[in-house]
Design a protein that fits this description.
This protein has 556 residues and is an alpha/beta fold. It contains 19 helices and 23 strands. α2 packs parallel to α13, α4 packs parallel to α5 and α13 packs across α15.
């Protein structure tokens, strides 16, 4: 009888998860609870909102037996306090505790590192706030972005730049994965519209005021006045404060802040009056979530959840939907015969895992099936339709275009479907897509300095153009020098009439050439360009020799 019982025991052992990679431990096919982890920063604008939203979603899921059929989600959250190192440590701890999925991490920098751990141990990461476009690559199969990618946000910025007929922008950004890769996406999207980044101004992740001042001093030496500020909430306001101090928030300046600014305004409003005064006239973006009854109910419920201590931002809505997405995916996982079991990773033992206690970490055997269930989920949440494309992006990416006047004033929408529009994106989805330039539209914007006229976006305050004007004896009806800084004539009138038509401002000085008794030499006048003269105003008849020396515009 003993051999028979031994055989029965071995069959039971193999059926319940023995794998070639190591020894397995099992939970029942339909356990009473499933553990998931959460990694984010509790005291940040995004993290504190997400924590409340995620906990509310866990409560809602567990109170609805139709979602998981009696199984409950057990959430264990870890505060990493903006530390990449702590994020790695907490992720490793989760891998020791039979965790089937992790909500987070909050930042793209952490996501790049932790995704390697998730890949090895086959535990899906679902991040509601890591927006770095490169995280969508095949390098990170177990990373799932449950919010919008910065690829779409930068497409929106590029289309705004084109809409206002600007051609060059300056990018001010944090020099980390999220900042660099976001700006790289912006450069690509601008190039598609024959625009470009004329200057890149990277900053430290946690810059001091001196660091910010040094960066902005360099920016002041450039000619473009269109600034795209892609940073984090805690340093973004410091940049704008220093820009205001340096006189970079007046008329003819344009600031386009990515959605970090709308996140602050949604979460911490009202900001101090002096801060609000400094950011008037800016443009910012906010992830668009369509209006719905569930969203309205959750918004009205938010005050009770937080005791009115802070507001609800878009990331909170995506964090809430992330929990429901995961719950429905886990239910699908069970329906497809998934079993929650874990096995040792033999490769960790081979590299001395026992001395480092790496042998405590285990592979989630059902990780691939759960990942497939997550990517195949199709539901409607607080943020609208929650469904993934073949490229693992959420369907229907869209943003609100916000003008900071008083608080926030929406001037339109951007969608990947039809570009800029004053109509809500869901209405556009019922029509054929139209991304033509003539179809783009936004409401009027009030710019920095309280001006309504579109800024030209260019300035030459640091470079004065020296324009040579021949002091002729003949044809004085075309050009005549009257002494001092006074010039008259048809060419002068045309020059000053053309200035307002330029898409930028120029700083110039008219310089007479010649003694006023003889007509100056055309050849000598053209050669002055090599000595610092930037332009020549004259009705000239050039010889071939002179034409070969310089390029000229068409005559009027």
């Amino acid at each position: 009888m003993a051999p028979i019982w031994l055989l029965v025991g071995l069959v039971f052992f193999f059926q319940n998860g023995f794998l070639s990679s190591g020894i397995s431990t099992n939970i029942s096919m339909k356990p009473s609870e499933v553990q998931i982890g959460g990694i984010f920063t509790f005291n940040s604008s995004i993290g504190k909102v997400a924590k409340v939203a995620i906990e509310a979603a866990i409560e809602d899921v567990n109170s609805d037996p139709s979602v998981l059929g009696g199984t409950e989600l057990k959430l264990v959250t870890k505060d990493v306090n903006d530390s990449g190192f702590l994020g790695i440590i907490e992720a490793l701890k989760f891998m020791e505790s039979d965790t089937v999925a992790i909500i987070g991490p909050q930042t793209s920098v952490m996501a790049h590192v932790i995704s390697h751990i998730a890949n090895e141990l086959q535990v899906p990461l679902l991040s509601f706030s890591a927006t770095d476009p490169t995280l969508s690559s095949l390098q990170y199969p177990f990373f799932v972005r449950t919010t919008q990618s910065d690829l779409f946000q930068m497409a929106a910025v590029a289309q705004i730049v084109e809409y206002y007929e600007w051609r060059e922008v300056i990018a001010i950004y944090v020099d980390d994965d999220q900042g660099r890769n976001g700006i790289a996406a912006l450069a690509d999207k601008l190039a598609e519209r024959r625009c470009k980044i004329s200057y890149k101004a990277p900053m430290k992740a946690e810059p001091t005021r001196d660091d910010i001042r040094d960066v902005l001093f360099k920016v002041l030496l450039t000619e473009s006045r269109i600034f795209v500020l892609h940073t984090y909430a805690k340093s973004g306001l410091d940049v704008l404060d220093m820009a205001h101090y340096l006189g970079m928030m007046g008329s003819e300046y344009v600031w386009i802040a990515t959605d970090w600014l709308s996140t602050i305004l949604d979460t911490n409003s009202p900001l101090p009056p002096e801060t609000m005064d400094q950011i008037q006239g800016l443009l910012t973006l906010r992830m668009y979530t369509p209006d719905s009854d569930p969203k309205r109910k959750f918004v009205s419920r938010w005050g009770n959840l937080t005791k009115g201590s802070f507001g609800l931002n878009s990331y909170g809505l995506y964090a809430y939907d992330t929990v429901w997405l995961l719950a429905r995916a886990i239910n699908t996982f069970f329906e497809k015969g998934g079993n929650i079991s874990f096995s040792n990773d033999s490769r960790l033992n081979e590299i001395g895992g026992r001395s480092l206690h790496l042998d405590a970490m285990s592979i989630f055997n059902g990780g691939k099936l759960l990942l497939k269930s997550i990517l195949g989920t199709n539901m409607t949440g607080l943020t609208g339709p929650v469904q993934f494309t073949s490229g693992r992006s959420l369907v229907h990416p869209a943003y609100e275009v916000i003008n900071v006047i008083g608080t926030m004033r929406r001037v339109g929408y951007w969608s990947n479907y039809s570009g800029l529009s004053i109509e809500r994106p869901e209405r556009l989805y019922t029509r054929p897509p139209n991304n033509s330039v003539s179809n783009q539209k936004l409401y009027p914007v009030i710019w920095p300095g309280q001006i309504t006229q579109k800024p030209r976006g260019w300035g030459f305050e640091k470079k004065q153009l020296r324009i040579g004007v021949p002091n002729r004896v003949s044809y004085r009806e075309f050009i005549s020098y009257e002494g001092g800084d006074s010039f008259k004539g048809y060419c002068i009138d045309v020059f000053f009439a053309a200035l307002p038509l330029l898409p930028y401002q120029i700083n110039f000085k008219l310089i007479p050439f010649g003694d006023g008794r003889n007509n100056p030499s055309c050849t000598d006048l053209v050669r002055l360009i090599n000595t610092g003269v930037s332009m020549i105003l004259k009705l000239l008849f050039f010889t071939l020799k002179v034409l070969l020396g310089r390029s000229f515009c068409s005559p009027f």
